[in-house]
Amino acid sequence: xxxxxxxxxxxxxxxxxxxxxxxxxxxxxxxxxxxxxxxxxxxxxxxxxxxxxxxxxxxxxxxxxxxxxxxxxxxxxxxxxxxxxxxxxxxxxxxxxxxxxxxxxxxxxxxxxxxxxxxxxxxxxxxxxxxxxxxxxxxxxxxxxxxxxxxxxxxxxxxxxxxxxxxxxxxxxxxxxxxxxxxxxxxxxxxxxxxxxxxxxxxxxxxxxxxxxxxxxxxxxxxxxxxxxxxxxxxxxxxxxxxxxxxxxxxxxxxxxxxxxxxxxxxxxxxxxxxxxxxxxxxxxxxxxxxxxxxxxxxxxxx
Length: 303
Ligand code: GLU
Fold this sequence. Notes:
Bound molecules: glutamic acid
Largest sheet: 5 strands, antiparallel
């Protein structure tokens, strides 16, 4: 399979969406990105790496970090996590407060903000440094020691994070937060503000294509845990448009409001596409189009 050629085609499809969607501006520092940037990378389980466009340009990973907090919390703490967070799609916006009240402070899944705050809390308890654990993991798997956090984005998010603070306090009121609310939120903002490129993220997600094995051959997750994380990505990874993503792309994926989407082709490869303009659900218009083209043109999906 000539992956490079397919990425070039996918980039053309993505560029044809120019002007569609809006860059996230509810975190003011995020709005400064070049709206028409586009990049895409593919990494295979047997070591091939290719990319197109701005695939080596770092961007704000935002909610893609929630995938890594989840896997690290599972790797360090196992199934205890599931006492405090569910595994069902929410069907609600990622920052919704309504469901949390009716479900007594147990967030529906680890990828909505409320769920990610609980996961961050558990990872903080397990490691002492949740944001640092995510950053170090990404650095190691991508072999990119310069991968870091954008302090301006973290500060901007903290300054405008009223909804996340409301969610965290509400969770704490139900006794579902082990740590101090402000400390947990600080780690949450820090890991959302990590900057990484499509290249970095495709490499960092490869353990999910390798059934849990890391780049150095050590095991991060058991085979069945990796399967389960892929399943949660498929059902909950792209906000309340997970059905649409499964329909169009047919892969487990995790998106972020920075415009990135990381997708897994189990047993084979990872793909990461980035374009800052988002659709109404918060998913990148260009990245969705590019991933749709990739799976349609190659016939490679989980279905
Ligand atoms: N840091 C963002 C927030 O809490 C993450 C949102 C996202 O990428 O879905 O609003």
